Amino acid sequence: MDITYKFEYESCFAARLVQELNVDVKLLKKYYSDDLLQETIFVYSTNEDKLKLVIPYLKDHMNISDYDIISQNEHSVVVKVTTNSCPLLTILKKLDTDKKPLVEKIDSNGIIEWNIELDALSDLNYISDALKTKYNVKNVSRKINKIKKQDPKSEYILHEAYELGYFDTPKRIGLEELSVILHIPPTTLDLILRDSVKKVLKNNFSKQTY
C-alpha cells in the first residue's frame, strides 16, 4: 500500500526552520545509523539575510548533534544534519521498512508529509498510534493512495530538478549544485534532463491535434 501521512511535529528541526525563518526546505536524503538520523536538506530563500540565519539556527538547535555544509550560494544552502530526535528512527525500526521508499516533505506552514510503502493494515495503524502516543504529534491524518506510480529514474531526476527550482526564472539552483545533490556528473545530468524534457514534450504534443 502507498500511504500518505500528514501531521505537525514541533520537535522537527526542519519544520521549525520553515516556520521560524520562513524559508523553503526540501529533504533530499536520509541515512540511519544506530540511534541517529542523518538528513541532507536543501534550504532556499530569496532573502539573503534569512538564509544567513540557517547555519546559526542549526548550530544552536538542541536536537542537532552535528552538521556539514555541502554547498552554499546567496539563495540556497545544502546541509547534512545529524539528529537524534525523529519519529522515523523508532517507527521504521519497528516495522523493518528501512529498504522501502519513504518521501518526506514540509509545506510552508511546517506541516510534515510522509509517503511510505506498507505491507499490512496493522502497520498502517501502528504508525498512526505511534505518532499520537509516543511523540508530541498533532493533527495526524492518513490516506491510502489507490494508484501507486513507479517513476523511472529519469522522471525522478526531472521531478527533483523541477522541485529544486532548476527550471525557474531565474534558476534557484544551477547544474553544478544539482549534480552534487543527485550524485550525478554534470554532463550526464544535463543529458538526462534534456532527454526527459524532450520525452515530456513529445508525449504531450503527440496527443494534440490542430
Describe the structure.
Residues 157-201 form the HTH bat-type domain. Pfam families: HTH_10. InterPro entries: HTH_bacterioopsin (IPR007050). The chain has 210 residues and is α+β, with helices and mostly antiparallel strands. The protein folds into 2 domains: 1-143, no CATH class; 150-203. Helix content is 39%, strand content 30%. The strands form 2 sheets. A 4-stranded antiparallel beta sheet has the order 6-7-1-8, with helices on one face. A 4-stranded antiparallel beta sheet has the order 2-3-5-4, with helices on both faces. Helix 6 packs across helix 8. The termini are far apart.
Number of strands: 8
Name the helix and strand elements from N-terminus to C-terminus, one letter apiece: EHEEHHEEHEEHEHHH
Helix content: 25-40%
So what's the oligomer here?
single chain
What's the structural domain tally? 2
Backbone shape: globular
- H/I helix tally: 8
